[in-house]
Amino acid sequence: MLVFNRMAVIGVGLIGGSLARILREKGAVKEVVGIGRGEENLKRGVELGVLDRYTTNAKEGVAGADLVFVATPVCAIPKVVAEIAPFLAPGCIVTDGGSVKEFVVEACEQLMPEGTFFVGGHPIAGTEHSGVEASFSTLYQGKRCIVTPTANTDALALEKVVEIWKIAGSTVPLMDPVQHDRVVAAISHLPHMVAYSLVNAVDGYDRFGGDLLSFSAGGFRDFTRIASSDPVMWRDIALTNRDAILEMMDFFSGYLETLRGLVAEGDAEGLRSFFLNSKEKRDAIL
Amino acid sequence: MLVFNRMAVIGVGLIGGSLARILREKGAVKEVVGIGRGEENLKRGVELGVLDRYTTNAKEGVAGADLVFVATPVCAIPKVVAEIAPFLAPGCIVTDGGSVKEFVVEACEQLMPEGTFFVGGHPIAGTEHSGVEASFSTLYQGKRCIVTPTANTDALALEKVVEIWKIAGSTVPLMDPVQHDRVVAAISHLPHMVAYSLVNAVDGYDRFGGDLLSFSAGGFRDFTRIASSDPVMWRDIALTNRDAILEMMDFFSGYLETLRGLVAEGDAEGLRSFFLNSKEKRDAIL
Ligand SMILES: NC(=O)c1ccc[n+]([C@@H]2O[C@H](COP(=O)([O-])OP(=O)(O)OC[C@H]3O[C@@H](n4cnc5c(N)ncnc54)[C@H](OP(=O)(O)O)[C@@H]3O)[C@@H](O)[C@H]2O)c1
Ligand SMILES: NC(=O)c1ccc[n+]([C@@H]2O[C@H](COP(=O)([O-])OP(=O)(O)OC[C@H]3O[C@@H](n4cnc5c(N)ncnc54)[C@H](OP(=O)(O)O)[C@@H]3O)[C@@H](O)[C@H]2O)c1
User: What are the protein's GO molecular function terms (chains A, B) (predicted)?
Assistant: First the structure.
């Protein structure tokens, strides 16, 4: 099996912490160094057995690492890579877990010194919780991690990053960064935009005074779970995948407008078939 | 405790079956008669111990009943009540579980013969499954059932209907039918319209060919669970609560439009605070 001597994780949260946990468990890394901005979260990472040691100095942290996993919010990923690039050991592979890929991959590829390699990745797995405390080793089990090579990607580095995610339990489709960003805009970013808007709308509706949300049943709670996701993570996603998100929001609004028309017209058969198509498609992914 | 001699359930599905189960379990009904259009579902109701006996003849089914629970899709409720009204025993209480109340209560109150009573109700509880097979006795446990009296409602009948839902384990807020319809438009009908539209949109997006939905992770599946709900039930809700649903869809679209603006402008602070408000409100109802 693929074994790394030293893995550095920058941004030891849900995504970074969970990958460190599983690679340690599987013996795929000999040592894990955590890198972050504050000590508290990192200390907790050592206590929880996610990290062997930590530092707030990224330069020191990446020294001698043959694998660096960057799992900060998306906007910070290129900044972090720019900061560490001059200090990477020859042959080091840098990969990330950011939810947007064109923005990240385009910027980071250019930052890599000769003989070091960047490969973009995005695990389609997560919860609405954050921080190392929320991490767990089975997060990636049975999930997909999309890896996004480009024409510039080193073939061997790509192979190793794919292998990492397989060790973590995921299947690993390869996808162009631009295509990736459209796919996740549809299945993840759009639903989040919709859920955030829905909770704000219900919260903002005060025609009857009273606390509408207190009447919400299980359906509403499940439906809006993703509206509890981290605001900074989602700010960064919205900032960096703007065009795809706008395209999907407009595409969705068209469907909502169609449904609005059916409701306004009282079109019984149109309503039933709109709902039925959705039910059939949804049941197929149960 | 309140005890009914004979309860007739018309529409022995998730909602009707679950109320029959719990009232039997608690000894609050001596006999339960199931009434439906086809024998198959009703036979299953007897096999599952939900019903003592059944009939497809509503007139016969309600004979001698002191409680009738109508739990068909909303549009059928006034039709069913019109059909049984002439055959109700004196003192009989008819109540329903329909998700829309103004349409149902206005129609049914007028149909009741002297000395029989209609009281509208709506349990805020459910799953996306239907039929008697999906029913279970704890469905209403810890939930709310909104009961919707009007100026015409008999005080004693109201008291008994409230008591029924308390026996089923629910708290029982009273609400004007019109207000009820706005509240559920916001917390239930709007989310369903949004979820149905979202699944149809993602299903309809074919820019990259391929099956987008196959990439969906847990977040998407939870988010869209309610889009698996019964198309006929939701057709009827959309037909009978039209104005409130349109109002809420438009109100929601305003928020979506605001968010679209923040995304288009790349307004980092605006995005973060939009997401944060939603997260805080959502976390409060966890
Ligand atoms: N959550 C999900 O569902 C999910 C799924 C797939 C991909 N992702 C992606 O994975 C990445 C991490 O998400 P997560 O859920 O793991 O978030 P998280 O639990 O909040 O962890 C992110 C970590 O990054 C560090 N960080 C935050 N802001 C930073 C900044 N400006 N500069 C440098 N470091 C910073 C923080 O550690 P310190 O405070 O110690 O610096 C934090 O622990 C994001 O790019 C996200 O888009 C998330
Ligand atoms: N599901 C929820 O989450 C939920 C929550 C709260 C309230 N409600 C309301 O409760 C009511 C029943 O919903 P449910 O989820 O229990 O549905 P369900 O499981 O499909 O049961 C409805 C039953 O009504 C009968 N029925 C269907 N169409 C009919 C028609 N046109 N005329 C007469 N009977 C008909 C069917 O029995 P036969 O085939 O044997 O006639 C069926 O078993 C609806 O008004 C709904 O709005 C549902």
Answer: NAD+ binding; prephenate dehydrogenase (NAD+) activity; prephenate dehydrogenase (NADP+) activity
